[in-house]
Specification:
The complex is a heterodimer of chains A (484) and B (462). Chain A has helices spanning 5-22, 30-54, 86-104, 112-131, 135-144, 146-156, 161-190, 195-200, 205-222, 231-238, 241-266, 268-273, 275-294, 299-319, 323-354, 365-368, 370-384, 390-403, 407-432, 448-466, 469-483, and strands at 63-71, 76-82. By secondary structure, chain A is mostly helical. Chain A has two domains: 1-271, no CATH class; 274-484, no CATH class. Chain B has 20 helices and three strands. The two termini of chain B are 34 Å apart. Chain B is globular and about 65 Å long. Chain B has 462 residues and is an all-alpha fold. The chains are: A mainly alpha (484), B mainly alpha (462). The A-B interface holds A 70-74, 136, 139-141, 143-144, 146-147, 150-151, 154-155, 161-162, 166, 169-170, 173-174, 177-178, 180-181, 184-185, 187-188 and B 306, 309, 364, 369-371, 375, 379-380, 382-383, 386-387, 394-395, 398-399, 401-402, 405-406, 409, 413, 416-417, 447, 450, 454, 458, 461.
């Protein structure tokens, strides 16, 4: 198909943002701005739906390829294409961005135009990461994501937002520059930035280890893995609801996507060499952050720590280097993208009404907000990993695949599941059950818009949980290629 | 018989000086705008016939390209500068045609410096340039700090000129020649002499640890002069430094190479550590320029891989960004005069769209965040240096740019997140506005359409 659908996917939000920025802000009401943003992002979502429809699952390699020379002298090209690994993540992105805009119509009152513009830019940069198959443009998009996110957290965040947004930006940047050096080194060796060509190239073993660590520095911060995770709770707590949603839903997946797309195929020797280290870090992440999550007083912080734990499953799954493990990890990525996004929205709903995120300030919410409690329950159970929800499939596959590696690993991941159930259930119990607090009595139940997006998310969780083949069909072939 | 043909650009500027001198007595406005025209003419001349000027000489084609391109950039830079200078000078009651004369002398010196093949000519060029700069620093005679900046700059500059002369004489003692191109068979004496020459040049481009004058001079001088110090003379000195490095094969001389690498690393680090705590924006820019000089030195050292192209590209992007930033700064005033503190930028987002967004673009570009052009500039320099084997320096460079991101982000934070405390007055200088919007667009759109700028330096890529 010669239709440049991928470039269109990247450009649509940018063009939307440009037209919005050129319109005069004094005449437009907030609502009109959000509506136009919604139109653009919904159009983008529909456009991205073409990808799975026209994607040929029986073929190997990338599809919808577009190639333009960019910098002749350096062999850097605008080279984009998608395969089974990128399509679900693109869909997840285009699906979550309209929801982010929907949930902020009421909560973002000042500087609405800027807000929508940053979100549109963010969307196109993220899609750029997922479609690029040239290392340099991958890096360009990977880094560019930081700019709108920095502004979103910094402008509309909570009271300690400056600290959080600086920490987020500098942590990620520090990781990424090492990857930049590795990328430059690789390009100077292979004489091309093409991902497929680099996968075929074998480096010296010692150098490969160093290069792997450089990429690891960047992706481990993004995922985030255990010692590099401290930016995440801060960023989540301070970010506005929509920022948390996109952060947990998509940005964390960039790191895991990088592991699958770049680290595994480039550095086969190093991936096996560093397997124990990554398992150890992930086990610590799962157990330690789960315990930390148990003791949190702030709802958002608790879910942020649970994100770290869940992403621990993802990294374990990826580095089992088996088809099942990576499939499971990937499934967990998508599932976590939906569920954690939904949980942050859940927190956002009560925060918007009651202006506090402390768990102790709520109790007996189910009496006044029954619909809310229902949706909360769906996502809470999915996060716990109840069979029939999407959370189950990923965790199950990952745990299953760890048995072939080490029983201890299985033990620790299983402990993570139990701990996960305990803190999520505790959170649910403390907020929804118990005596109704007097100052909660006037809280209004979900509005129609909220019901709409929660049901979309809940439907997706159930669908993936009951019929996971939908996703596996798409990714199986591409993932089997990346293991070798 | 000396071929005068190759001096046409210099003669052109000299005649421009004479015309301005005579004309300025009667009508300073016309004299100044005449210079704009003159430089436009000069750029067109260089663009079309630049290479012919040097065709009768025995200079290699690559070097001729470098001469022509550097001179074109200097003339275009001068056009922009002359367009910018009117309003800020008027605001300070300094609007006199002599200022343009100093500018012309400095540019003349830079031209001579760039294309000199002889240490003595280079010395004359450098002195001509520096003396005009001292005067520009002290141009605001009623302001104490401006005087202080001028004197500081002069006394330290004179010291470094002394080093330069001493170094040149040592080289002459050893080799019996002032010629840059035909120096071989160094003994220890020439090496010492050459290191003194290098130190003097490092001083001119304000590379650490020879940077001490930079923050004070930047802060004290009138902002418009600071803009000039930060851009064109530095550009010319760097080109000359590059030529010295290349012509004398300094990469082969162990001791000098070591000095070069040390200075590069120290500049990278001193630049960022100095900038973190700064509260005055011009001081911050001074330290940030030291950090960027580190990158440029890295580019000079790794010319073997991709030749002058990477360095020139970095320089061009840096010039455009610096012009943009200063165009914004010159457009802003507080109620009681020029604004100086970073905190006075608070809430710029709410008062001016175009300014705050351009500043956002410039500072992210300086920090090297894609998709802005600054990223690609750094990317090319790093590719060149990694290919040439400067791995450790590259690592220092990228880590320093992470730290640098911190203070650039602080400025963006002030503009975008904070509420304004004092009212910034908008100067409404139309030319300034055009210049910063244009540079912002170039920096942003380079990502989408890199060809024009790449082609500009293209003939310098191997």
């Amino acid at each position: 198909m010669s239709f440049p659908i991928l470039s269109l996917l990247i450009l649509t939000p940018i063009i939307g943002a440009l037209t919005l920025s050129l319109s005069s802000s004094t005449q437009l009401k907030n609502k009109t701005i959000f509506l136009s943003g919604l139109w653009i992002t919904t159009g983008e979502f529909l456009l991205s739906l073409l990808l799975p429809i026209f994607y040929d699952k029986s073929k190997n390699g990338y599809q919808f390829i577009e190639f333009h020379t960019w910098f002749d002298k350096f062999d850097i090209n605008y080279y984009v294409g998608v395969d089974g690994v990128s399509i679900p993540l693109i869909l997840l992105t285009t699906f979550l961005v309209p929801i982010c805009l929907l949930c902020s119509i009421n909560s973002i009152q000042n500087r609405a135009k800027e807000f929508v513009i940053y979100f549109l830019l963010l969307e196109s940069f993220i899609i750029g990461v997922f479609v690029s198959i040239d290392l340099v443009i991958f890096y360009v998009f990977f880094e560019a994501v930081l700019i709108p996110m920095f502004l979103i957290i910094g402008i509309w965040g909570g009271e300690n937002r400056l600290y959080a947004t600086f920490k987020f930006f500098l942590y990620t940047l520090a990781g990424s520059v090492l990857m930049l050096l590795a990328i430059i080194y690789i390009i100077s060796k292979v004489k091309s930035g093409n991902i497929e060509l680099i996968s075929d190239f074998t480096f010296d073993q010692q150098i490969e280890l160093v290069l792997f660590l450089c990429f690891f520095a960047s992706f481990a911060v993004k995922v985030p893995m255990f010692p590099f995770h401290t930016w995440l709770p801060d960023a989540h707590v301070q970010a506005p609801t929509s920022g948390s949603v996109i952060l947990a839903g998509v940005l964390l997946k960039l790191g895991a996507y990088g592991f699958i797309r770049l680290s595994l195929p480039f550095f086969e020797y190093a991936s096996i060499y560093f397997q124990p280290m990554i398992f150890a870090l992930s086990c610590v992440a799962i157990v330690y952050t789960s315990i930390v999550a148990l003791r949190q007083l702030d709802m958002k912080k608790m879910i942020a720590y649970s994100s770290v734990a869940h992403m621990g499953f993802v990294t374990i799954g990826i580095f089992t280097l088996t088809q099942d493990g990576i499939n499971g990890a990937y499934f967990q990525m998508i599932s976590h993208g939906i569920v954690s996004a939904a949980l942050f929205l859940i927190v956002g709903v009560v925060y918007e009404r009651h202006h506090t995120r402390m768990i102790s300030d709520y109790s007996g919410v189910t009496n006044v907000m029954p619909k809310y409690s229902f949706f909360f329950m769906v996502f809470m159970l999915s996060s716990v990993g109840l069979p029939g929800t999407s959370g189950f499939v990923g965790e199950f596959l990952v745990i299953m695949s760890t048995i072939s590696v080490s029983v201890y690993l299985t033990f620790f991941t299983a402990i993570g599941v139990i701990l996960g159930a305990s803190y999520m259930l505790l959170l649910y119990k403390n907020i929804n059950f118990g005596d109704l607090k007097s100052d909660i009595k006037q809280l209004a139940d979900l509005t129609n818009i909220e019901i709409f997006y929660f049901s979309c998310l809940a439907f997706l969780t159930m669908l993936l949980g009951i019929y996971p083949k939908l996703l596996f069909e798409m990714i199986n072939k591409s993932i089997s290629l990346s293991i070798i | 018989m000396i071929n005068l043909f190759q001096f046409i650009p210099e003669i052109f500027i000299l005649s421009l000086i004479l015309i301005t001198l005579c004309f300025g007595l009667f009508n300073k406005d016309r004299a100044i705008s005449l210079n704009t025209l003159g430089f436009i003419l000069l750029s067109v001349l260089l663009l079309n016939y630049g290479k012919d000027f040097y065709s009768s000489t025995q200079i290699s084609l690559n070097t001729i390209n470098l001469f022509v391109l550097a001179k074109i950039i200097l003339s275009i830079g001068s056009i922009v500068f002359i367009l910018l200078l009117k309003r800020p000078l008027k605001n300070e009651n300094l609007y006199r045609y002599e200022y343009v004369l100093f500018l012309l002398f400095a540019i003349l010196g830079s031209f001579v410096l760039i294309s000199s093949n002889n240490f003595l000519t280079a010395f004359i060029g450098l002195e001509l340039q520096s003396l005009s700069l001292y005067l520009m620093a002290a141009f605001n005679t009623k302001n104490l700090s401006s005087n202080e900046a001028g004197i500081k700059y002069f006394s330290l500059g004179a010291l470094s000129s002394g080093f330069l002369l001493f170094g040149i004489s040592m080289i002459y003692y050893d080799t019996g020649s002032f010629n840059i191109q035909n120096l071989y068979n160094f003994t220890a004496i020439s090496e010492i002499g050459l290191s003194l020459v290098l130190i003097s040049l490092f001083f001119k481009v304000s590379a650490a640890p020879f940077h001490i004058w930079t923050p004070d001079v930047y802060e004290g001088s009138p902002t418009i002069s600071t803009l000039f110090f930060a851009t064109l003379p530095k550009f010319a000195s760097l080109i000359f430094l590059f030529r010295v490095y290349q012509e004398l094969n300094i990469s082969d001389i162990k001791s000098l190479n070591y000095i070069f690498q040390m200075v590069c690393a120290i500049s990278l680090l001193v630049g960022v550590y100095g900038a973190i705590t700064q509260k005055v924006i011009k001081r911050l820019l001074a330290f940030s320029s030291i950090n960027h000089i580190g990158f440029m030195l890295l580019g000079i050292m790794s010319y073997q891989f991709m030749s002058e192209g990477t360095l020139l590209f970095y320089l061009i992007i840096y010039l455009i960004t610096t012009f943009g930033i200063f165009a914004v700064l010159l457009n802003l005033r507080t109620v009681d005069g020029e604004f100086t503190k970073i905190s006075q930028l608070n809430g710029l987002r709410f008062t001016s769209n175009s300014k705050s967004i351009s500043m956002l673009v410039f500072f992210f570009s300086l920090a090297g965040i894609p998709p802005f052009a600054g990223f690609f500039a750094k990317f090319f320099i790093l590719s060149a240096s990694i290919n040439d084997g400067f791995i450790l320096l590259s690592i220092i460079a990228v880590l320093s740019s992470v730290i640098a991101a911190f203070y650039y982000l602080t400025i963006i934070k002030n503009m975008f997140f904070n509420k304004s405390e004092i009212d910034l007055l908008d100067d409404n200088n139309k030319t300034g506005k055009v210049i910063f919007i244009l540079s912002g667009l170039i920096i942003t759109l380079f990502f989408i359409y890199p060809d024009p700028l790449i082609n500009l330096v293209d003939n310098l890529f191997k």
